[in-house]
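If you are new to this repository, start here. Below is one unmodified record pulled from the training split, so you can see the exact layout before writing a loader.
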Amino acid sequence: MQTGAPETSGRGRDAGLLVKLLGIHVLIIACVISIVWLAIDTLAVHYFMILMDRYNVPTASTQQMFLASVHRYLIWASATALVVSILLGFTLLRRLLSPLSDMIRTTRRISSGDFSARVPVRSHDEVGQLAWSFNRMAESLERTEGLRKKLMIDVAHELRTPLTNIRGYMEALVDGVAPPSQETFEIVQAETLRLGGLVEDVLDLARADAAAGSLNLQPIRLGSLVEDEISRFRSRFESKGIRVSLKTGASEGSVLGDADKLGQVLRNLTQNALQYTPEGGEVRVSLE
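And here is the target side for that same chain:
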């Protein structure tokens, strides 16, 4: 069961807002006409009667003729003003609300998965700036969606290899093609550990994304941080006969960052260098 406000088309929303703005426009004109009408019936008539008395003109019938004439012309002028204001306001307001209609249609395309949709920027005013900011948001969503799809493809590719190897060895063991030897079990165990490591990498990525908003930012010295992390692995590098050269360069200044999170990044990089560098090789670490 779904709850919430019912959806309406972009054209319907546009028409509703247009009618409301036109109604406000007409209401303002009606208020102005009413004020003018009252001013004529009170101030103008009083001044007119003073002039009639000054020139000895009969006021009984003259007053009624004056009011009828003024009211008639005021009604015609008001009707003309209303028609012109509605036509002109409809044209201008529709042009003003056109970018909002474009944004509604573009938002629906993005919500349906089309992240390439953009809003045409027709001006440089507040509405144009809103359209430009909307397009920037759409570009960011499109880029994020592209990275997400690429990540899913990469993860599926990396997970398929150890799964395929494990499945092949298990089928060979079940069919009796491969003997249940210690070597076979060690290969299956190695592939299982590799698969578990890939899953942990995906979990680390998800945790890092979730913790992006809770970083403990403080001034740190990157040179000292890199040296400390490298020193943790130095004995393991030496056991494999791997030479490690460290060049920090002009890195004595401080930067604003999370020491724990950056330390984890450096440990991952160092662990990869240790794992995939052959014995007797060299690892070069430089910092700029």
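Two things worth knowing about this chain: The chain has six helices and four strands. The first helix runs from residue 10 to 54.
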